[in-house]
Amino acid sequence: MPVPKPHLSGFHSRGFLPHLKAEGGIYFTTFRLADSLPRQTVARLAERHADRGHRARAVNQTTSSNVIAVAQAQEVAEIEVLLDRGSGAAWLRTPELAEVVTQTLRHFEGERYHLHAWVVMPNHVHAVVEPSGQHTLGAILHSWKSYTAQAANRQLGRQGAFWQRESYDHLVRDAKDLAGCCEYTEHNPVKANLCHAAHDWPWSSAYLRPKTL
User: Fold this and answer.
1) What percent of the chain is predicted at pLDDT more than 70?
2) How far apart are CA 37 and CA 91, in angstroms?
3) Do 47 and 30 contact (CB within 8 A), yes or no?
């Protein structure tokens, strides 16, 4: 299907990674467990964010956007390597908790959003999501994270933050970018050596797709 041409409405932030909002956009989004990154890494990313903000304000808008994009790509690559090591408690290794997140992602599919691809990893979640109507990406993420955090904490008998407040959102540019984001999402368990083929991982969109011989 063709990728809609979104109306860009600027960068915003839910932490130290920049986010680009759009009306009618498709997003590759990643959110992770609260303890999935070492504190030293979180502190380093926050420091980089502050430094990048100072540098961006000192140059024109075009240069500023390029600086943000390059820095963001570097930070995301670093984060992905750490996440795929399964650091932290990795509560989503527990099938019951992975299933809670899976069912939550799928609950409003076709009503509030369309999911092009998704996967629940041991300590993070990837989703390629297209919000519908007046539903925003921020509201969708809040709903997912709020419900699953409460349900997971009840099952674990714990209190406190379950998800990291920060998430990473990439605005899909075109059909090629969409295909790449979907492939990355569904093959993340293979890349992390959790299974041999994408359709073997029970908590992903690839698993639900009809198997071909």
Assistant:
1) 69
2) 14
3) no
What would the two tokens of residue 8 be? 């860009």
As given in the structure block, the two tokens for residue 128 are: 């390629």
pTM for the model stands at: 0.77
Residue-wise pLDDT for 27-40, tens only, equals: 999 999 998 876 66
Q: What is the number of residues in the chain?
A: 213
Which residues in 81-109 are b (16+ Cβ under 10 Å) and which e? ebbbebbbbbbbeeeebbebbbebbeeee
What is the secondary structure of the chain as a DSSP string?
Answer: -PPP--EEEEEEESSSSEEEEEET--EEEEEEETTSS-HHHHHHHHHHHHHHHHHHHTS-HHHHHHHHHHHHHHHHHHHHHHHHTT-S--GGGSHHHHHHHHHHHHHTBTTTEEEEEEEE-SSEEEEEEEE-TT--HHHHHHHHHHHHHHHHHHHHT--S--EEEEEEEEE--SHHHHHHHHHHHHHHHHHTTS-SSGGG-SSBHHHHSPP--
The whole-number average pLDDT for the span 108-124 is: 97
In the chain the domains, ranked by start, together with CATH numbers, are: 7-208 (3.30.70.1290)
